[in-house]
Design goal:
2 copies of one chain form a homodimer.
Chain A (H helix, E strand, L loop, with lengths): L2 E7 L13 E6 L2 E5 L5 H7 L7 E5 L5 H4 L1 H11 L6 E5 L2 H13 L7 E5 L7 E4 L3 E7 L7 E7 L5 E2 L3 H4 L4 H8 L4 E2 L5 E2 L1 H4 E2 L6 E5 L9 H4 L4 E5 L7 H7 L4 H11 L3 E5 L9 H8 L5 E3 L5 E3 L8
Helix pairs in contact in A: 10-11
């Protein structure tokens, strides 16, 4: 029951020799969600040993080049590999128009269906749902329409304790309702309370991806109590003016959001290429929000399974 | 007086974890010529510590994605860095139309002039010339209009031997003609033959870039005696049929061309991603043409300075 984030690129608009352009992969129970796709993403996917065939859904925060120029090569490679599974892209409607023009010129035909899901960056709404995860948009504040994405694991079921099926002679037909929290009434009419039969369910885990964005408290209620929060910190705190002007965040902005949202862990990234070392930015954030980590290409973050309290 | 090739990417259409997409940089006397620009080229330029500001001329062999998708990010980065020097792109005319559409959408305005030079891939002609180098097209045989590029250093001058100016009382006005090979006649009318005054000039060095292409003997006269020959070997020799079908070359094709051209060294690259190890391909070529080398990302090849014989 994996819930693991891999950072493929942690630079802002200009890559460096150590930081590629923005892209993340979230693995939720072996379903791999690609979030943004800067230049070089397909190479980073390979280097991180993620199978191309497992990527079926791509989420694009906004249409700036450093978040999408990797799509051209990725789609081209999928096509060369004769991919046949549908590929879903969730993005601002304009991407469809732009990509269509591109594909028409360079690919002519595709071996797979490319399915566009037009998102409304200004609205917080569920844009994807399956039996394991719900994905919703987080309206952000940037120079062009931009949204983040929140991934929330579907609630887990209660787990049956060892041997209870035999001990209490539970028929198969009753097991699902017990896993959902019901008590069990046996043939004699005796009520066996759920807590005698089960362990509490694992907590549902969550990840919020917030880039690119200026400081925006409006996102706090949406990302409240998120386990992992990726928030951009393009600039150190002494560049507050530049951050405001370009609709980006500083170390302090990110930390303040994490604190208000009561996040489990804050991951900082999207660092300006001017910073050879991001550690001072991370330290600035840590002075406000201790559980702060520096995104580096290839870093993996997972959330441990922990049981709910009764 | 550098003449050095750097391999930025050595894979064919699909990158691998070790091989990026096609791009080379040739340094001729500290002028850096970028040849093709696959996805990730700007990152490879950084990793190889080549200064962006030194790249003023980009040569594009053909309009397949794996040779040009890096242009979008490179141009974007140049723009973000407020480049002001002109950038010259030598390519099939269609690239201008396509890039213009792209730039209009993603960049709006550029901080520098982008100057297109339309090349005719079917013709062997000089497309660039300065005081150090001449660059000409090499018509290749691929599925779309494609050409390679031959870089030839301008002829060097004779070098004056030590102390000859003093010994023979040569006036400054005569030095240039002596460097060009003339004898010197002193005030007494005595002829001092050039070989007493000079060392022979260094040989002019050359590099030919031939990808993507099927086997084509037509290129042999153009690349005759080239010092460094990069020739694609997408496939091993047992995939001759696939090579023919896709208008690519095998190890043997490349080696046969190198042999007929009497190349100084053959560099093989553009390997299909199916080959985890390119060594067997290189060995196949070596059995025909001994001076064969495997292009790997980051490899550098230079040609030593050697004097002409009198």
């Amino acid at each position: 029951m994996t819930f693991e984030l891999t950072i493929l690129g942690s630079s802002s608009a200009i890559p460096t020799s150590k930081r590629n352009l923005t892209a993340h992969v979230l693995n939720v129970h072996e379903r791999f969600f690609l979030i943004d796709c800067g230049e070089g993403t397909q190479i980073q996917i390979r280097k991180n040993k993620i199978k191309f065939g497992k990527i079926n859904h791509i989420f694009i925060s906004h249409l700036h080049g450093d978040h999408i120029f990797g799509l051209f090569g990725l789609i081209s490679t999928f096509n060369l590999l004769n991919r046949d599974k549908d590929l879903h892209i969730y993005a601002h409607p304009e991407l469809e128009k732009f990509l269509a023009h591109h594909i028409e010129y360079f690919e002519k035909t595709l071996s797979f269906n490319l399915i566009y899901h037009h998102i409304k960056p200004k609205v917080n709404e569920v844009i994807y749902e399956d039996d394991k995860v719900t994905i919703e948009t987080i309206p952000l504040k940037h120079r062009v329409p931009t949204c983040g994405f929140k991934f929330t694991e579907k609630p887990h079921l209660f787990n049956l304790k060892k041997n209870v099926v035999q001990t209490y002679q539970i028929p198969i037909s009753k097991i699902q309702s017990i896993k959902e929290g019901a008590d069990f009434i046996n043939e004699e009419g005796e009520v066996i309370p759920n807590h005698k039969l089960t362990l509490p369910p694992y907590k549902s885990r969550s990840y919020a991806y917030c880039t690119d964005t200026a400081y925006s408290e409006k996102i706090v209620p949406i990302i409240q109590n998120v386990d992992l929060l990726f928030h951009e910190a393009t600039f150190a705190k002494n560049m507050k003016d530049q951050a405001k002007k370009t609709f980006h965040s500083t170390s302090e902005d990110a930390a303040n959001i994490a604190q208000q949202a009561n996040a489990g862990k804050l991951i900082l990234g999207h660092f300006s290429a001017r910073y050879k070392d991001a550690q001072p930015i991370v330290n600035e954030a840590r002075s406000i929000f201790e559980q702060t980590s520096e995104a580096e290409d290839g870093n993996k973050y997972s959330v441990d399974l922990e049981r709910e309290k009764r």
